[in-house]
Amino acid sequence: MSRAWRRLALPVLPLGGLLAWQAVIWLERPRDWLLPSPGAVWWAAWDHRDRLWFHARATLTETLVGLGIALAAGLVLAAGIAASRALEAAVYPWVVASQAVPILSLAPVMAVWLDYTLTQIIVAALLCVFPVIVTAVDGLRGGDATLARTVRTLGASRGWTWWHVTVPAALPSLFSGLKLAAVFAVTGAVVAEYVGADRGLGYLTEISTAQFETALAMAAIAVLGLIGVLLFLLVALAERLALPHRHRATRPTWSTHT
Amino acid sequence: MSAELALRGLVLGRGEVAVLAGVDLTVAPGEVVALVGPSGCGKSTLLDVAAGLVPPDAGEVRLDGGPAPDRPGRLALMPQGDSLLPWRTLADNVAVGARLAGVPDAAARAREAVTRYGLAGFEDHYPHALSGGMRQRAALARTALAGRPVWLLDEPFGALDALTRAELHAEVADVWARLRPTVLLVTHDPDEAAVLADRVLVSGPRPMGRLVEVAVPEARPRTPAARAAVREHVMDALRAQHAVGRTA
Ligand SMILES: Nc1ncnc2c1ncn2[C@@H]1O[C@H](COP(=O)(O)OP(=O)(O)OP(=O)(O)O)[C@@H](O)[C@H]1O
Ligand SMILES: [Mg+2]
User: Fold this and answer.
1) Which of A15, B91, B103, B207 could form a disulfide with B123 if both were Cys (CB 3.0 to 4.6 A apart)?
2) For A221-228, what is the mean pLDDT?
3) Of 1.10.3210.10, 3.30.1140.32, 1.10.3720.10, 3.30.260.10, which CATH number belongs to A75-244?
4) What is the pTM of this model?
5) ipTM above 0.85, yes or no
6) CB contact under 8 A, A249 and B146
7) In this complex, which of A155, A156, A245 lies closest to B87 when CB atoms are compared?
């Protein structure tokens, strides 16, 4: 399929969905609070843009802080697990076992102990730390041993070899984990908002549904979707910048890698 | 820039199988020794042990009569197959060895070497955008630039067509004449041994034990007749070793 055709393919699904939605409105004429029209959702979003922006900022902050914590803790843990068999034996099985507990079920308990924002941050972090750890460990382990051995014979220290061979080899796998983590973090923050919060898009969705402001709730959900896509694209962009060799034949001018 | 490399009674098992069963081998300073043997006989394993990457079960590696340092680094290994870092450009890959050795103008010298090895114009290309032969030239340039006294080369010309291979043989012979490194060259190709090596050793099938030295007429560069003779001797030795391996 040519590039132009693929461009055209992109909006097909959402347009089809909108059309089907509008068709239901025309044919069934449901009450506004039951199913508002696409236009009504659009105008609700416009009228309440300040509120949406306020709550979006809250959710985005929780998501990003949670993601940051998961990334920092997950990478340190993964580096340790990949480097030491003893640490792997002591820690890795528990990391895996911890996933058997539905993380989201911890949110109400945590809300008892912690303040709202902190609960949301921690639930987001817990939900997205697992893909970070697993993909980082696999990436750090899976590199081509020949490369490491070659630079060792050329005089590289263990530290140099780790940083310049093992880590770059792990990045593609890690970026896959990050894409998952970015999306999971939004989910974690929003579900924790349902449990207890005084701000955030999850909170806004909940109170507007309760007040039969379905159009506003749907607008909040649309913004959540937007945030998820945005974070995903951000990670994809970081991946392109960090791994230029995966996408091009020659070194780009903006690459600082030497 | 050369040193004597001596492998003494090297023994190594991998899992259940014996791969090295008492290998002795000496390469004099500045000498080029070719090691020819059937696939799977333990040639790459021997180079790993020589480079200090894998400790032997018994025996030792000596450099200039003393024990080789535990840490790899004095012997530059060019491994079999691809060994360039995919995330570095050609020029950066070639410069790695020199950078690690602390050569001050590593980047400039790498660009020089890129031209010398026939890769001019591809300095900023990533390895995946180069042909297999170009990658091997780059790996060879990197090894040369690392300035190590001993080079361990594992089938360095494996992915080249016959013509390029002959050209590169001539260039490499030049480089060796200039730098005089001590070279242990693993190859499948009796011709290559005849062109490049001062001495030729032949191994039987796994496990690699006593190596048979074949008679080599003339010093390098050899006449076509002398090369043909070396090739015949190598083939004879391989056949004889193969027969021994079967009856053993
Ligand atoms: N990590 C390993 N674990 C178990 N066995 C191994 C390992 N590495 C190598 N071997 C075995 O050791 C033997 C020698 O392998 P090696 O790579 O040294 O052969 P080679 O002579 O270099 O062969 P080729 O000419 O095909 O490159 C092989 O039979 C192989 O099965
Ligand atoms: Mg081999």
Assistant:
1) B91
2) 93
3) 1.10.3720.10
4) 0.84
5) no
6) no
7) A245
